[in-house]
Amino acid sequence: MNKIYLDHAATTPLHPQAVEQMTTVMKEIYGNPSSIHAFGRQARHLLDRARTKIARTIHAKDNEIVFTSGGTEADNLAVIGTAIANRDKGKHVITSSIEHHAVLYACNFLEKEGFEVTYVQPDENGLIHVGEIEKALRDDTILVTIMFANNEVGTIQPISKIGSLLKDHQAYFHTDAVQAYGTEEIDVNDLHVDLLSASAHKINGPKGVGFLYIKNGTRMDSLFYGGEQELKRRPGTENLVSIAGFAEVASITSSRLEEKRQSYKQLKDKFLQALEDEKINFTVNGSMEESVPHILNISFPGTEVESLLVNFDLSGIAASSGSACTAGSIEPSHVLTAMFGSGSERTRNSIRFSFGLGNTGEQAVEAAEKIAEIVRRLTT
Fold first, then answer.
1. Which residue, 36, 80, 277, 358, is most buried by CB atoms nearer than 10 A?
2. Is 107 among the residues known to form the active site?
């Protein structure tokens, strides 16, 4: 049985060049970047070089990149750290109801600390409208956090327009770009963002490492206490091996961005065409036009998520019901609930397919044919 991995939005296989770079670092560079001797200086040089590589991928300055343990920590540092540091200017935060739980739960924490959070609702395509942000904006708003691309349905948000809206406002602007980094062109200057989160394991890098872009001048409190690593924003000895792997794959991805986008788009199109050829009943959730190329969320009327995923797995197909962080949960997707309402059948019969490194057109067609067969069996 051929196994087909269509869950790249959850995590991705390591790029061979990242493996090679990480192996070299593990074997040859073991000094602490904070040490002043030759071993430490060698490690520091590698860390500085990695920071420069990452910064270039989003057109940031080197000293605006802080390495973290991943997207979740980056989101928490951005949301909680910025809000706490600026509470003297106001206690109002704006976000959306379809954010990743790393942002939503950080906002829940802020509410317990006396902050007020406005949760903007999406339309049926999962799009957050700039006008809704403008309506929610107040003089005491200190932070707006809206994701770049939704991790469940792939819809790309109007980040540049929101950034322009906030240019002359005191509120800092954060975007969770975990699902967009590596497929979308990102220039933090053009987007007018103050904070941006990304994660290595979504772009064929190692798990357990990410970064937070923090625009120079941004007021932020650290969440941890210890040494003065990572520009005094994030104490703790840096995960040099993973950072080196992240920088390697980030450079590769940045240099081949359009090629990667077109490849994933072709896989998505082949997959959809094969489903249509099989003449089964399905509906795409989210916008096909304003979407990242690798994510496809599909509703199969008359089915249930659990049965679909079990049968897909038995057929060798790996997919997801949405966010990887809630895998195994029987709770309906909070994203689809926000888009369609809690009573919608789509919250109970929708699957996320996501394409990436190693997938082929043949696999896309084979997976679609197997899925069609399973859907027919479950609906007859």
1. 80
2. no
What is the number of domains present in the chain? 2
Q: Are residues 271 and 250 part of one domain?
A: no
User: Residue 37's domain spans which residues?
Assistant: 16-255
Contact 195, 214 (CB under 8 A): yes
For residue 325, pLDDT over 80 is answered with no
Residues in Cβ contact with 360 at an 8 Å cutoff, skipping those fewer than 6 apart = 267
Co-location of 43 and 161 in the same domain: yes
Residue 296 and residue 271 in contact, taking contact as beta carbons nearer than 8 Å:
yes
First to last CA, the chain: 25
Q: Determine which one of 325, 331, 358, 376 is catalytic.
A: 325
Residues 264 and 243 in one domain: no
Q: Identify the CATH number of the domain in which residue 335 sits.
A: 3.90.1150.10
Q: Please report the pLDDT score of residue 380 as a whole number.
A: 85
**Number of Cβ within a 10 Å radius of residue 208:** 16
Each residue's pLDDT tens digit, 68-101: 999 999 999 999 999 999 999 999 999 999 999 9
CA-nearest of 357, 95, 63 to 211 is 63
For the stretch 262-311, pLDDT in tens is 999 999 999 999 999 999 999 999 998 899 999 999 999 999 999 999 99
Determine contact, residues 153/295, Cβ cutoff 8 Å: yes
| Together in a domain, 216 and 364 | no
8 and 32, same structural domain?
Answer: no
Token pair listed for 294: 């690798």
Same domain, 176 and 188: yes
Burial of 345 (0-12, 13-18, 19+ CB in 10 A): middle
Contacts of residue 131, Cβ cutoff 8 Å, sequence gap at least 6: none
Percent of the chain topping pLDDT 70: 98
* Residue 151 contacts residue 354 (beta carbons within 8 Å): no
- Nearest Cα residue to 204 out of 60, 29, 9: 9
Q: What sign for the dihedral angle of Cα 270, 271, 275, 281?
A: negative
